[in-house]
Each structure stands twice: as C-alpha cells, then as structure tokens.
Hints:
Elements: E1 2-3, E2 10-11, E3 15-19, E4 22-26, H1 28-35, E5 49-50, E6 53-54, H2 55-73, H3 81-84, H4 92-99, H5 108-125, H6 130-135, H7 137-146, H8 148-151, E7 156-160, E8 173-177, E9 180-184
Antiparallel strand pairs: 1-2, 3-4, 5-6, 7-9, 8-9
Amino acid sequence: MSYCSWCHKETDKLNLANVNGETLKLCDSCYEFNTKSQCRSCGDIYVTGVNGLCLMCAQVESASKAKKRSELLTGVDWDLISDCVSDTEFTEADYERWVTFGQGNFTPEIRRANRRRWITEKLVASGYPLVIVESNMDDIESLLDEHFSKILNNKIKIVIRTNSTKQVRGLQIVARKNNVFIAKA
C-alpha cells in the first residue's frame, strides 16, 4: 500500500506520471485527471495547475490547510496530523526491527538465554562460584517468574545457601525454593 502524491489516498496501485519534469506516483483517479489536464476537484480544464488542481481550487485547498495548521498550533484541530506525518509506511517488520534494535527476532528461547546469562554474570560478580549459580539456575528462574509482582519496583538480592545457614539469618525473605532465597535488600 502506498499513497498518492496528490490526493494522499492509500492505494494498492500507483501510476508514474511526469509532471513539469518531476516523476510523481498518482492513483488511478488523479492519473486520469492529469492526462486530461482536468482539475481533480472541480473538473474544469486548466492550463496551469498545482497538484492536479486548477489555480482556484489550489487556492481554496491552500487556505483550508493554512486554517487547519493554525488550528493545530492552537490545539483546536487534530485532523491535520495525518497531513503532517510522513508518508513512509511503517510495516510490522519495521516495528519488530525497531523494537529489537535491529537484532532480529527475540524468541522466548533467546530471551530466556539472555536472562540466564545476565543472572549468571550478576551472581558471579557478587562472589558466587559459576558452578553454584548454574546448578541453582532453574530455582532462581522459577522464583523470579513466580514472585515477579512481589519483587517489581523493590530492591532485592538473591542468596544461594551453600553450606551455612548464617547466610540467610536476619534477612527479610520474600521467597524461597530449595537453596535459593529472594530477600529484600
């Protein structure tokens, strides 16, 4: 789907027309008016036209657009927004590329692998051995998923009990699964 250069209507088929040395994409209706040098608004034949309109209709359209722009700037008329936005199409693929920063599809498997990598890096950086983190990863993920609403917008820390119960004493525990605890920080 593309837009006509003159009437800005969305159409499947556009015709290329050379108007005053400029190549334009016109819908069937505007293309027909152009070949006959006929005004696309009033139907009169013209010698000099602007965007497929005779000079009289072009002045009326220009005054109407100026009025709408003035209304928009004063916050009165929002219908003009469609005239002010780009004619560029924003497809579903464009949206997906924009959301993923051009990195491709983020499947649930990729998201899970990225989350596991992030959790591993954070816990190893805080002093846990990689072997301990990897052996408890399923419990960590399970706790994060099950108690997401409790930990959202709260400062938490993940504690993995290795062989001492002293690691969790005095902490306000939010959730626990096996040797993994989520505590308020």
